[in-house]
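Sample entry follows:

_____
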Amino acid sequence: MVLRTVIAIVLAGAAGTLANAAAAGLFVNAGLWKLAAVPNRYAVGIALVLAVPALYRLLPGAWGAALALLLLTLAPSLLAKLVLGAVVAWPVVLALNFVYALTALVVYRLVLGNRPA
C-alpha cells in the first residue's frame, strides 16, 4: 500500500509537471515547451504532491480533493512569482498551475483507485 502511494505521488507530480509545460508551450509561448526537459521542475512537482495523502487523510472525499487542488494551484504559483520571478501575469500563472494541479490529482487518484491515501 505504501509502495502504491509512492508510485502515485511520483507519477502524479511528473504528469502534472509535463501537463504544465505542455500548456505553457501551447497557450503562452511555443518556446516554453523546453520547460518539460528541466529536471528540477519534476522534483518540485513531486515534492508538492507529497502533501496530497495527508490532505486526503485530514479531509476525506471531495473536501480533501478541493483542498489539494487549491494547494497544488497556489503553492507553485507563489513559488513561481515570488521566488523564481515569473514575468507572466498572475492569472496566467494560476491557470497554468491549475493544469498542473488537476492533472496531478487525476493521476494520483487513478493510480490509487478507491484505496485510502
Q: What stands out?
A: The chain has one domain: 2-112. Helices lie at 2-28, 39-49, 52-58, 62-83, 90-112. Residues 2-112 form one domain. The chain has five helices and no strands.
